Every structure is written in structure tokens, then in C-alpha cells.
């Protein structure tokens, strides 16, 4: 393996480092060396950008055959932006139904244009494609488990990645590290990036009889209510020959199987006769980490905490953050010719990311706090989702990954309707609770 030839990089003296590092010195006789830890959408996109930009790149993935439990929905803009081929798409979802706690159903998708849809993919298919493309761009894929990242104590010294391949322990020294190793990131722990709140997602893949699978041909469903999650939602998303049925929670992770039974009970008539072919569970971050860059280490994707509240979406933001980070390192290093430092990563990656997406994350965080706090608020949310203006604004923001430009008059009406729905559904909720008691 080529990586074995880079077990150690020369360590310059403290004096020479202090004199030259601050001005991003050129790297004589070699290219900048980067390790990307994690081969999901974030890591693969970072590795592709780095390798194609002239940086010597090593992409670590512990289990290439495994798949993260994930709904697998990606927005329309990602297909073009990341050149995702059509044959990877399992389903073109053009219809969505949202079910309230009382099982009020709203058709969500009436404003979609003829060419618009939500792409449903299997993560194992998407991740494999993105890793292969990173390899084609020049990244070296290492199928091994990273066990530790040794942080240098001398400025400018290499980072050392400890990893295991086939039971054999190995090391690799690099100049810069991209942590894309998920919510339980070892890279984040190594740089003391701080903790964050995690949700847990639980999902069953269920193969349905043909006549029942026909119902979900181009339809996805979302269910909200305390029976399926106290702070999130349950889903039924169609795949190639099965449906993914799952839920998630932050507040009551130990009860996740109870909520999974809840979503199964809600959809029972539609999945009766189905066969469970896979059961999956995985932590999902709820907000960005306190530290996303330290030294010459940058976090992307779930490791950085880039999953939106309310929708729980993370695939696009993982791939986007990975690509932005990789491109930032390429720019700062002049195509791999120069060393980079923490200031470069913060300026070229973190500042650009926050400017582009912080408002989106904050807005969805606010929506979750307002509408996911009680069953009464959830009833109001579903009622609002029946409004075509709300649907158009939602889908424009989701499909194209930017906050849609609204109409001031319609926005004012939407605010009034939101307040009215919340007040009305609070009264309804209290009556329902009284009847239950």
C-alpha cells in the first residue's frame, strides 16, 4: 500500500517552523498530504475535492459495505450539483402525506412543478458511488478502522493517524485532517471539539407485497405525534423494492423501540404482510459542535453537527460541507503546494459555510421549537401544511437549498394563520387530552 511510504514526515526545528509557518511556506519536493476520516457523503466529497485539486489524499472508511440508517431523501439541486446519475435513484417522489397526531392527513406536494421531485436513494448505493468517484479523482481509499489521531505538540509537525487493516496496526503521517466520521467522531474527540446533543434514529427496511408496494410507488409519508416521537417524526420512505419505516428522538432515546412500535401501528394496514429485511440504528447530531476547526483539523458532516432541526436532513449538508472544506484546503494550499494553518481553514471554509447556511439552521431550529413541543402544536403544523403558499415556500427552500423569497402580503397572512392554527389546535388539544383523561 502506497500509504505505508508516508509513515513519517520530516520534523523541522522549532525555530524554522516559527519563522516560516505563519507565511504558508511551500512544501519542497512534495504535495500537501490530507487524511479524510470517514467515507460517507461528507468524507467522499471532501476527498474528491482535495484529490482533484492537487492534494495527496487518503480516504479512510471502516466498513464500505455498511449503510447508515437514513431516510435517503435528497433535494433536487443535489442531483445536478453533485452529478448524481439517474440510475442511482430508487424512487422519484412527487407526492407526500403528513399525518397529525389525530391522523389528520394532508397532501403535501401540490405545488411541485412537472420536473420537480424528491429523490429517494439507498445510502449504501450513494456512498459507494461517491467513494468510487473520489478514488477516480486520485484519492487512495483505505478500508481500515481509525483508532486514534495523534495531535502534534510542535507547530507544523504532522498529524499521525493510527488505524487497523486486517488485524494489522498501521500509521500514516499527514499535514491536514478532515473529520467526517459521524456523530461519534474520534477525530472530534482528538481535537477536543466539545460535545453536542444527539438524537437516535431507528429504521426497519420492510419488503412489501407487490400490491402494497404499488401504493408507495411515488409516495412518502411523515407521521408526527407523541406516539411516534416526542420531538421528531416517523417516516415511511419508498426504496427500490421495499420501504424504510423509522423514527427518531432526542429526549427519550431509551424509548426508541416504543416509538418504532408506534409508527408501525400507525401504518399497520399499509405494511401488513411485509417482511423486515434489515434493522438499523444510528446517532444523529442535533446542532453544530462548539469547535469545528482546531489546528489543521476540520470537521464536516455529522461530525461537525450539520443536520437540520425539524426536517432531520443531513445528506446534502454533509456532501456540501465536505466539498466546501476540500476546496478551501486546495485554495489555501495553492493546489497542494503550500502548508495551511488554522486561520486558513477558518477563513476559507468555516466563514463561508456559516455565511451560507447558519440562517437556514437557525430558522429550522425555531420551527422545531414552535411546532414539535406538543401534540396540539403538531396539529397546527399539519393544518398549516395544507396551505399552498406554505407548501411552495417549503419545497422551494428544500429542493434548492436556500430560503425562498416570499411575498410580504402572503408572509403576513401565513403568520396570522400560524398564530390562529396554534391557538385553535391548542384548544382542540386540551379537549382531546381531557377526553383521554
Automatic annotation (TrEMBL):
Any Gene Ontology CC annotation: chloroplast thylakoid membrane
Q: Which NCBIfam families match?
A: BchP-ChlP, ChlP, GG-red-SF
Q: Which SUPFAM superfamilies match?
A: FAD/NAD(P)-binding domain (SSF51905)
Keywords for the protein's UniProt record, in alphabetical order: NADP
Which Pfam families does the UniProt record give? GGR_cat
Record has NADP as a keyword: yes
Which InterPro entries does the UniProt entry name for this protein? Answer: BchP_ChlP_pln/prok (IPR010253), FAD/NAD-bd_sf (IPR036188), Geranylgeranyl_Rdtase_fam (IPR011777), Geranylgeranyl_Rdtase_pln/cyn (IPR011774), Geranylgeranyl_reductase (IPR050407), GGR_cat (IPR054715)
The biological processes this protein is annotated with in GO are: chlorophyll biosynthetic process; photosynthesis
Q: Which lineage do the record's taxonomy fields give for this organism?
A: Eukaryota, Viridiplantae, Streptophyta, Embryophyta, Tracheophyta
User: Could you tell me which species this protein originates from?
Assistant: Ziziphus jujuba
Residue ranges constituting the Digeranylgeranylglycerophospholipid reductase catalytic domain according to the UniProt record: 213-278
Query: What gene does the UniProt entry assign to this protein?
Result: LOC107410339
What GO annotations for molecular function exist for this entry? geranylgeranyl diphosphate reductase activity; geranylgeranyl reductase activity
Query: What protein does this entry describe?
Result: Geranylgeranyl diphosphate reductase, chloroplastic-like
Amino acid at each position: 500500500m502506497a500509504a505505508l511510504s508516508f509513515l513519517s514526515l520530516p520534523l523541522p526545528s522549532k525555530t524554522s517552523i516559527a519563522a516560516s509557518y505563519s507565511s504558508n511556506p511551500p512544501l519542497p519536493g512534495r504535495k500537501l498530504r490530507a487524511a479524510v476520516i470517514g467515507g460517507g457523503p461528507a468524507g467522499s466529497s471532501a476527498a474528491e475535492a482535495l484529490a482533484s485539486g492537487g492534494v495527496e489524499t487518503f480516504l479512510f472508511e471502516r466498513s464500505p459495505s455498511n449503510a447508515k440508517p437514513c431516510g435517503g431523501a435528497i433535494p433536487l439541486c443535489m442531483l445536478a450539483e453533485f452529478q448524481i446519475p439517474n440510475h442511482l435513484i430508487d424512487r422519484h417522489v412527487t407526492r407526500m402525506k403528513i399525518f397529525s397526531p389525530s391522523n389528520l392527513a394532508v397532501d403535501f406536494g401540490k405545488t411541485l412543478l412537472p420536473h420537480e421531485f424528491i429523490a429517494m436513494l439507498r445510502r449504501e448505493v450513494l456512498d459507494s458511488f461517491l467513494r468510487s468517484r473520489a478514488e477516480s479523482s486520485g484519492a487512495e481509499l483505505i478500508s481500515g478502522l481509525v483508532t486514534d489521531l495523534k495531535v502534534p505538540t510542535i507547530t507544523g509537525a504532522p498529524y499521525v493517524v493510527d488505524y487497523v487493516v486486517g488485524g494489522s496496526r498501521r500509521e500514516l503521517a499527514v499535514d491536514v485532517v478532515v473529520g467526517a466520521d459521524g456523530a461519534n467522531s474520534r477525530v472530534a474527540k482528538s481535537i477536543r471539539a466539545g460535545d453536542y446533543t444527539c438524537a437516535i434514529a431507528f429504521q426497519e427496511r420492510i419488503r412489501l407485497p407487490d400490491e402494497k408496494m404499488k401504493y408507495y410507488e411515488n409516495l412518502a409519508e411523515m407521521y408526527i405525534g407523541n406516539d411516534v416521537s416526542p420531538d421528531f417524526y416517523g417516516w415511511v420512505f419508498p426504496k427500490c423494492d421495499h420501504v424504510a419505516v423509522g423514527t427518531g428522538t432526542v429526549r427519550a432515546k431509551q424509548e426508541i423501540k416504543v416509538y418504532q412500535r408506534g409508527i408501525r401501528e400507525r401504518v399497520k394496514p399499509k405494511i401488513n404482510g411485509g417482511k423486515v429485511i434489515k434493522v438499523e440504528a444510528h446517532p444523529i447530531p442535533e446542532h453544530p459542535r462548539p469547535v469545528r476547526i482546531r489546528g489543521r483539523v476540520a470537521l464536516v458532516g455529522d461530525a461537525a453537527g450539520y443536520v437540520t432541526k425539524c426536517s432531520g436532513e443531513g445528506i446534502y449538508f454533509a456532501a456540501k460541507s465536505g466539498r466546501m472544506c476540500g476546496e478551501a484546503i486546495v485554495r489555501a494550499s495553492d493546489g497542494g503546494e503550500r502548508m495551511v494553518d488554522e486561520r486558513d481553514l477558518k477563513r476559507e471554509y468555516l466563514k463561508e459555510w456559516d455565511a451560507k447556511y447558519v440562517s437556514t439552521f437557525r430558522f429550522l431550529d425555531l420551527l422545531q421549537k414552535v411546532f414539535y413541543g406538543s401534540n396540539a402544536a403538531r396539529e397546527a403544523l399539519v393544518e398549516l401544511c395544507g396551505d399552498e403558499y406554505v407548501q411552495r415556500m417549503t419545497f422551494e427552500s428544500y429542493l434548492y437549498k436556500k430560503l425562498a423569497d416570499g411575498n410580504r402580503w402572503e408572509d403576513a397572512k401565513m403568520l396570522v394563520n400560524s398564530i390562529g392554527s396554534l391557538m385553535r389546535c391548542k384548544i382542540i388539544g386540551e379537549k382531546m387530552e381531557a377526553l383521554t383523561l
